[in-house]
Amino acid sequence: MIEEKGILFVLSGPSGVGKGTVRKALFKKDTDLQYSISMTTRDKRAGEKEAVDYFYRTREKFEQMIRDNQLLEYAEYVGNYYGTPRYYVEETLAAGKDVFLEIEVQGALQVKENFPEGVFVFLSPPSLEELKNRIVKRGTESDDLVANRLHAAKEEIELMDAYDYVVVNDNVNKAVDKVQAIVKSEHCKRERVAIQYKKVLEVEEK
């Protein structure tokens, strides 16, 4: 019997492109995907649970994991570390479940360096003008911050060559359909299926 390993899917793109919205809509439709749980050094907030909201670790433990290359990516925000633990991803994939990670572009590039066998999906805005409109609609950023975000977005869009797929987010439901199609097609890729068949044949020949 063919035992298929899970696949790590990484959804990334510029700030304001709608990564979180697409991910939430995707998870309402696709319950087979396992959302990647991050690790953090910040304190647990009321109602949060270990291994559900985050893996909570001390700063010393987190920094030891950085040194031991046990994180697929990490960053520091407002004095606390956040990152993706390698062991959680690898154990989940080994159990045959797909892992889905929604992350900023720089984090995705870190993951690609540490886990190149992942599948990397770049979520792109229909245009920079549309991206500007979405950021402005949030009403949380000053004009200077909007300009900085757009400048960063231009630089990040130039990095899309590092990705396997590009999905234009002009409509959330259409974007979700495209991501689901990517998930299905990756499981049917010859090289993935062939590896599993070869393992079965080797066992049968013994």
From TrEMBL:
Keyword Amino-acid biosynthesis: no
Function: Essential for recycling GMP and indirectly, cGMP.
HAMAP family: Guanylate_kinase
Record-given protein name: Guanylate kinase
Keyword flag Transferase: yes
SUPFAM superfamilies xref list: P-loop containing nucleoside triphosphate hydrolases
Catalytic activity: GMP + ATP = GDP + ADP
Binding-site positions, ATP: 13-20
E.C. numbers: 2.7.4.8
Main location per the UniProt record: cytoplasm
Database matches in PROSITE patterns: GUANYLATE_KINASE_1 (PS00856), GUANYLATE_KINASE_2 (PS50052)
Protein keywords: ATP-binding, Cytoplasm, Kinase, Nucleotide-binding, Transferase
The Guanylate kinase-like domain, residue ranges: 6-184
Family classification: Belongs to the guanylate kinase family.
Domain of life: Bacteria
GO molecular function: ATP binding; GMP kinase activity
Gene3D superfamilies, sorted: Guanylate Kinase phosphate binding domain (3.30.63.10), P-loop containing nucleotide triphosphate hydrolases (3.40.50.300)
GO cellular component, one term: cytosol
Compartments where found: Cytoplasm
Species assigned in the record: Paraliobacillus ryukyuensis
Pfam families tied to this protein: Guanylate_kin
